[in-house]
């Protein structure tokens, strides 16, 4: 009878588990601002490597890797039932790479700020990462029992100011708690629930289950009787016991022996679930951060070249320039890479799309980037990336920008061009308008027929005009004040590279003419 009761309880647990929707909640913030303490208060089910159990974490007194644990969140009025997986991200400056890994797998975030100390550089970096990944965020002011009212108010004011500078987090809620004294915890849980209900309403918690299976691996360890167990959060697809999968990039084929969710055995799991899996024919020591468990029909590629559309952070203090070395975060890996910045333009002469080098990209601007990575990574089109400058001091905001992978073309295939400006002089003789010095010979001049030229206002500094012209496309209907006239080269004259042209406005003898042409860059 006791065995039957136990079996019925286990069946009930499995039914309850199926009714639970898994949510991944990240906890971010500066070192010692209370992340792990808050995780401990919220946790109902501890998990592998959670709550700073790694020996090095205990030795250093800080979180050095992602910790995972969970708690149940239910709203009886709406019958909404969530199992919330807590992802405790490290706050130490030299562990920013792991923070990015955590941000890549979460649905919603808490960012904790010590009420007495206020926000630090890493607080700002974490907020930038969350803002770039468009992750809904709740600001949690912690340790309020250790601060006076003025300090709490000042920290709240400071955080409101920082949130105001973001693109996607301006309306984030700010709560005050003490995890040690259990002050404000129920209010925090209610806020998490309200945010989740809002995301459900906006269909932002829908999981990508109609796709191939993909799960980045964050831990692997041997268990007696089970073999090698791997853990991770499923990015996409569905997995079942008995499925034949592969581990990339080590190209190892394996089979799923068993699956657990929240320490309960299940027959299958899907995108969004945090799971542990026992695998056949795999040794734990062969697996490392960056390995991905995936199905045979995977779209992942092993690449060392990535092309992405990128947006530079509005508050990044430095410029992005061609051939600069940056750090590229792809999934759970951070790899040094050489970047080439460019934009897509329409060549007015050939009416063909071209890739044009951009010599400097500043805060708030967008561009395309070609990355040449020092090491190969697993990636696919559509992956989110983060660009960082980890060579900068940790007291500086090092989040450069973010983007989306578009392709894996080489620099040669992109055929990036640069703009070359040539200048000539107008000669007017007996009503005939000709232009000298744009070409050294008649044969060279003939190649320029049909191209557009610009006559410069003589009152303007030619070097400044060249800079403006190289940075901007001139549209005939929106002619800038430094352009006196626009012309079109229609033929040659004589044998020495002189050209003739028609212009849309009056010009004068010895006016300066500029010609923009595209040439191969690099």
TrEMBL record:
GO CC term (a single one): cytoplasm
Top-level taxonomic group: Archaea
GO terms (BP aspect): selenocysteine incorporation
InterPro entries according to UniProt: EF-Tu_GTPase (IPR050055), EFTu-like_2 (IPR004161), P-loop_NTPase (IPR027417), Ribosomal_eL33_sf (IPR038661), SelB_III_arc (IPR048956), Small_GTP-bd (IPR005225), T_Tr_GTP-bd_dom (IPR000795), Transl_B-barrel_sf (IPR009000)
Protein localization: Cytoplasm
Pfam assignment, any one: GTP_EFTU_D2
GO terms, molecular function: GTP binding; GTPase activity; RNA binding; translation elongation factor activity
Keywords from the UniProt entry: Cytoplasm, Elongation factor, GTP-binding, Nucleotide-binding, Protein biosynthesis
Function statement: Translation factor necessary for the incorporation of selenocysteine into proteins. It probably replaces EF-Tu for the insertion of selenocysteine directed by the UGA codon. SelB binds GTP and GDP.
Name of this protein: Selenocysteine-specific elongation factor
């Amino acid at each position: 009878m006791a065995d039957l009761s136990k079996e019925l309880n286990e069946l009930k647990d499995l039914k309850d588990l199926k009714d639970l929707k898994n949510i991944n909640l990240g906890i971010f913030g500066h070192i010692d601002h209370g992340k792990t303490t808050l995780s401990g208060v919220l946790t109902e089910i501890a998990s592998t490597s959670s709550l700073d159990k790694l020996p090095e974490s205990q030795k250093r007194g800080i979180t050095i890797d992602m910790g995972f644990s969970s708690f149940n969140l239910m709203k009886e009025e709406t019958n909404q039932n969530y199992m919330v997986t807590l992802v405790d991200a490290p706050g130490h400056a030299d562990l920013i790479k792991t923070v990015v890994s955590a941000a890549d797998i979460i649905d919603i975030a808490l960012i904790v700020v010590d009420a007495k100390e206020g926000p630090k550089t890493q607080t700002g970096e974490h907020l930038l990462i969350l803002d770039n990944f468009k992750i809904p965020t709740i600001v949690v002011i912690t340790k309020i029992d250790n601060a006076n009212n003025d300090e709490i108010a000042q920290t709240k004011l400071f955080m409101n100011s920082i949130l105001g500078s973001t693109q996607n987090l301006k309306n984030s809620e700010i709560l005050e708690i003490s995890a040690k004294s259990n002050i404000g915890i129920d209010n925090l849980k209610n806020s998490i629930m309200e945010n989740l209900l809002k995301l459900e309403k906006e269909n932002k918690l829908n999981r990508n289950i109609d796709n191939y299976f993909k799960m980045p691996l964050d831990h692997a360890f041997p268990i007696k009787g089970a073999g090698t167990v791997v853990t991770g959060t499923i990015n996409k697809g569905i997995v079942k016991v008995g499925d034949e999968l592969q581990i990339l990039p080590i190209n190892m084929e394996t089979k799923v022996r068993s699956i657990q969710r929240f320490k309960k055995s299940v027959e299958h799991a899907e995108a969004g679930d945090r799971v542990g899996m026992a695998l056949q024919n795999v040794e734990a020591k062969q697996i490392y951060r960056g390995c991905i468990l995936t199905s045979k029909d995977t779209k992942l590629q092993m690449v060392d070249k990535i092309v992405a559309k990128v947006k530079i952070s509005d508050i990044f203090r430095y410029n992005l320039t061609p051939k600069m070395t940056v750090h590229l975060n792809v999934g759970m890996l951070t790899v040094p890479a050489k970047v080439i910045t460019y934009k897509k333009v329409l060549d007015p002469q050939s009416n063909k799309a071209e890739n044009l080098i951009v010599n400097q990209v500043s805060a708030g601007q967008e561009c395309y980037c070609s990355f040449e990575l020092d090491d190969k990574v697993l990636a696919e089109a559509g992956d989110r990336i983060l660009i960082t400058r980890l060579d900068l001091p940790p007291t500086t905001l090092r989040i450069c920008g973010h983007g989306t992978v578009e392709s894996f073309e080489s620099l040669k295939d992109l055929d990036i061009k640069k703009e070359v400006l040539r200048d000539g002089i107008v000669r007017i003789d007996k009503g005939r308008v000709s232009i000298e010095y744009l070409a050294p010979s008649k044969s060279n001049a003939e190649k320029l027929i049909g191209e557009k030229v610009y006559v410069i206002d003589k009152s303007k500094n030619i070097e400044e005009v060249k800079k403006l012209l190289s940075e901007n496309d001139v549209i005939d209907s929106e002619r800038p004040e430094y352009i006196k006239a626009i012309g079109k080269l229609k033929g040659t004259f004589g044998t020495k590279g002189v050209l003739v042209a028609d212009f849309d406005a009056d010009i004068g003898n010895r006016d300066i003419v500029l010609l923009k042409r595209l040439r191969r860059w690099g």
